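#struct-pred

JT: dropping the chains for the assembly here, can someone run the whole complex?
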Amino acid sequence: MSRTKVLQAIRDALNHTRGEATGYPTISPFRTQGSLDAEAQLFFNELNRLSANGFEVTLGDIKPHLEALVHGERIFKATIWETPLLQRLQIASHLRALGVDVEPPSASKYDIAQCDLGITEVDFMLPETGTLGLYSRKDKPRVVSLLPRVHLAIATPAALRPDLYQVLEEAKAHHYLVLITGPSRTADIELTVTLGVHGPQRLIVWLLRED
Amino acid sequence: MSVSQPAYIHFGEYTQHVPEGIPQAVRQATQRFATNRAAVIADFPQWEQLRELGSAIRLHTIENLDHYLERLELAVQNQGGHVYWASTADEAREAVLKIAKSHRVALAVKAKSMATEEIGLNEALESENIRVVETDLGEYIIQLAGSGPSHIIVPAVHMRKEEIAALFSQKLGIEVPADPNKLTQVARQVLRERFLSATMGISGANFLVAETGTLVMVTNEGNGRMCTTLPDVHVAVVGIDKVVPDWKALSVLLKLLTRSATGQKLSTYIQFISGPRREEGEFGPKEFHLILLDNGRSKILKDPIGRQVLKCIRCGACANTCPVYQNVGGFAYGWFISGPIGAIFTPQILGPKVARELPFASTLCGACADVCPVKIPIPTILRHLRQRVVEGNGGIPSSIPGYLRLMAAFASGVLSNPWLYRFGSRFLGVFNRFEDRGWLTRMPFPFNRWTQVRPLPRFSNDFRAWWSRRELKSKGNDQ
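RK: done, full complex below.
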């Protein structure tokens, strides 16, 4: 009954009969895309400002970079999205070779919460704001970019979009999207910026250039 | 009247007893956010164009609210979610309680939400033995302390790190040094445990997209993601004014919101949630429930001037720039929403009997309207509401005390007579008797209305004398 009551109250107040809305403003994108190199540079600069970290990698670099990450961040346990790209890069077997315990993303929330590192792909990158966009699916669950202390995102240039406008126009057909701009942060105690309050403390982005 | 709503808001009385430390802490926070905002906007050449667009989108939406709410409801249902309509705070609380009881919820985790504070949800759940844990760090701290928020974005800004360390030791039994990083790590561990064991997550929303039935949440800490990812049930309580027509409009409003609120180009996490999870393995709740809260908003729509308050996207920029808010803090406004926007929202929802002082809690300097990302004419609405209060509006007497009327009449007499004004200004120096290191801190009645709240700089010069000396000097230099 409240439904009718609320809607009727609104119509009475606005003097409306039921009908279509009119007079909607025209909205267009605010930014156009630059060259790939320029966009990548802009993206990395923004990431740095956010206390995140990003750089370009090639296929051959993956193994040494993983090794540096595992040692530098003291990674003992990790979980990875099971997407075709990440499988092709053989991240899981590289990690196991480094002595890291690898949980499948289908593990329980308790097991994922024990992971030091979560590795995902990205569906979108926004250079202007240093933002990553991630969808949600069984092979790419939401918790991998949320529960572990370190989040490594592996991106390809195909994920670059010029503006939030384009990202949202594509994403509206999907049931879940999260935009991630830097590591988890708060300034709730005496306005001191502190990283890693609930989500990951470290965010690292590798842009994979296969050329 | 429900328990969650105050019977009368004593703004004036509160300003005479502002707790020590509040003005400094609040000013520090507001200045930080205002400075960050200014920097990020200077970096965005199309800002004014974006504001125009944001304003047009919001006005269009509230003027067609019935249409968009019906679209939203249908879209949420198509995504597999449940929609409830609550015309009052009581109905909204009941709807949440019913969902919680049907799932035998013992522990709920909550992301920061103004709508749930508006309806007093925590008290309602706790009276049914359902434990509710606030998970935004600032909200968690004030929940432990048993106090309220002093600022919309940094609710515990009035507490020092030593007080927080003492609170953690007392309530959690954990000894932590008074260091923001270490305190935050302790909160992370304690709350992580709660996130994993809670069966219900409660949130508000920044926007609801009518086109697809999508709930949009903007956060920095990640607690919002936890609350809407780990528990099996997600319940969102959202004001009917939060609806947005489509994703194009959303791209405009998100840019306006995050820059205006904290001076970030985008906040750390923005989630776009359309219904419950589709597959078990992706995580996310099995059930999604949306409670649409009216609680007097539809009534506001009647007044073409007053209704513009519903354009608000809750960024807090008006409070951060407001000289009154900076000096009194958020508690003074008596309800869940504070600052200039609270001063025009609360009286329209709770009525002039309860909140008749709030439209007067402003100097009408106009700074709030200048920063508002959706161009709400706050000073115009304040004047409009003052008129409604003073003109009786249901037999409410004027809120201006007699002595202030007398002083105003006196001032108007003096100010309209140049001779008298000049004569009187010679005596301002008398007030400097009350000086303490360059500031007047304690003045006698009735001037203490000012100094009780904040110090006044000493009267240092007679402007006219200074001007004529300057004129004389420059003439001397010319010759």
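JT: nice. The mean pLDDT of chain A is 95. The longest helix of chain A spans residues 36-49.
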